[in-house]
Design goal:
Keywords: Membrane, Transmembrane, Transmembrane helix. InterPro entries: PGBD-like_sf. The structure is a single chain. The chain is 16% helix and 30% strand. The protein is of the alpha+beta class. It has 3 domains: 79 residues, conserved putative lor/sdh protein from methanococcus maripaludis s2 fold, CATH 2.40.420.20; 84 residues, Efflux pump adaptor protein, beta barrel domain (Elongation Factor Tu (Ef-tu), domain 3, Beta Barrel); 179 residues, no CATH class. It has a 6-stranded antiparallel β-barrel. The chain has a 4-stranded antiparallel β-sheet with strand order 2-20-25-24, with no helix packed on it. Strands 4-13-12-6 form a 4-stranded antiparallel β-sheet, with no helix packed on it. It is elongated and about 160 Å long.
Length: 410
């Protein structure tokens, strides 16, 4: 056969010998597939049952317990250096003559004759002639703190405003304050009258004699109070940081000594939850430069403050620097708790709900008997103290004793 005749012949399909049998086989196959589909819909596997029941939520019961819930704390702290104040001497004391008073002596309390055979030598310079207290000593009101140009210098409180020399008969608020000061220092024979009398002079004489000095002459022939022999110290019983050496020329810029008015402290900011568990006197741990904590004590717990720049709020806490610790402003410091609170009422955190800023728990109702109805849902307001590790410490409540069942609602 030529190639031309082959291309022009029509394509012929082979005939099926048994068409009836083919149709029957197709019908049987269709029926079997339908039956399998129906059977698959009726049979349920365990996995299918679990998936179907996953949406069913059952209430969970938990119990109130008595246990320790300690969230602890670890907060950064910073060093607040000690505050100091210098003590300055106004000038060398100038003694008058010890001769009998002149006619004008009673009028002028600070009269000093230009010449006198019995005139006492005048100090030419305000010089520290003797160191009485040094670094580490403490200064109380009434103590002898130095000898300046051969004369004693005593510490007095700011409430005694001395500004002039005083002799018998002088009157004023300075005299009244001096008398009260002497009484506070347990000097007998002094009355608060506002007039310098013999009883006040006698007390001052004993005060000087106790440190082996004599009361100075502040007018011809009259002993009295020389105001330059007293210096004001900021508070009672302060430690001396530094004392000037003998021979120091004192001035308004050169102090006779420096006192520590407030000690160096460690300060930190606490949250409200942390602040509620801290009180003055409590022991905390101080970790310096990553070392093991050293026990120290809380000095002060401040009120809530808000930083104007960042808007962050917190409670300032002051802690004493541990004895012997060496710290500076660049040293990393952390405060942590070292003692554990006692056991208290606690509930699982999942059982505590919040609504309108208040916390509450739901009491689990008793099981209904004989198909009866359950009692109405009952809630109890709680005050949260702290939380840790899935538990919440709450204030004690007679309705929430250990063992009380609570409902964890779906």
């Amino acid at each position: 056969m030529s190639e031309e005749s082959t291309a022009q012949d029509p394509v012929q399909l082979a005939r099926v010998r048994h068409p009836v049998r083919l149709i029957a086989a197709v019908v049987v196959l269709a029926v079997m597939m339908g039956a399998a589909f129906v059977a698959g819909g009726l049979v349920r596997s365990p996995t299918s049952d679990a998936l179907q029941s996953a949406d069913i939520r059952l209430p969970v019961r938990v119990n109130v317990e008595e246990r320790v819930v300690d969230a602890g704390f670890s907060v950064p702290a910073a060093l607040t250096p000690a505050a100091t104040a210098g003590v300055f001497v106004s000038g060398a004391s100038v003694q008058a003559s010890d001769q009998a008073p002149t006619a004008n002596a009673a009028v002028s309390q600070s009269a000093t004759p230009a010449t006198s055979e019995k005139s006492l030598p005048k100090a030419e310079r305000t010089l520290l002639s003797k160191v009485v207290v040094g670094s580490g000593d403490r200064v109380r009101f009434g103590d002898l703190v130095a000898e300046v140009s051969g004369r004693p210098v005593f510490a007095i409180p700011p409430t005694v405003p001395l500004y002039r020399d005083l002799i018998v008969g002088a009157e004023g608020t300075d005299v009244r304050s001096l008398q009260q000061f002497l009484i506070d220092r347990d000097f007998y024979g002094v009355r608060v009258t506002g007039e310098l009398d013999s009883g006040t002079i006698a007390a001052l004489t004993r005060m000087y004699a106790a440190v082996e000095y004599e009361l100075p002459f502040v007018a011809d022939g009259q002993r009295g109070l020389a105001w330059r022999e007293f210096v004001v110290t900021p508070a009672d019983d302060l430690p001396v940081v530094q004392s000037a050496p003998v021979g120091t020329l004192l001035s308004p810029e050169v102090p006779v000594m420096t006192l520590q008015t407030t000690p160096a402290t460690l300060t930190a900011q606490f949250t409200k939850a942390q602040r509620d568990r801290i009180e003055s006197g409590r022991t905390v741990g101080v970790s310096i430069a990553g070392a093991a904590p050293i026990a120290s004590s809380v000095l002060r717990v401040g009120d809530l403050v808000t930083d104007a720049g960042s808007g962050a709020s917190g409670y300032p806490i002051s802690v004493a620097v541990p004895d012997g610790a060496v710290v500076d402003a660049a040293t990393p410091i952390r405060l942590s708790n070292v003692d554990q609170p006692p056991p208290g009422t606690a509930v699982p955190a999942v059982a505590v709900y919040q609504e309108g800023g208040s916390a509450y728990v739901v009491l689990a109702p008793p099981a209904a008997e004989d198909g009866g109805t359950l009692p109405p849902r009952e809630t109890v307001a709680v005050t949260v103290l702290t939380q840790s590790d899935g538990w919440v410490a709450i204030e004690a409540d007679e309705r929430l004793i250990p063992g009380t069942a609570l409902l964890v609602e779906p």
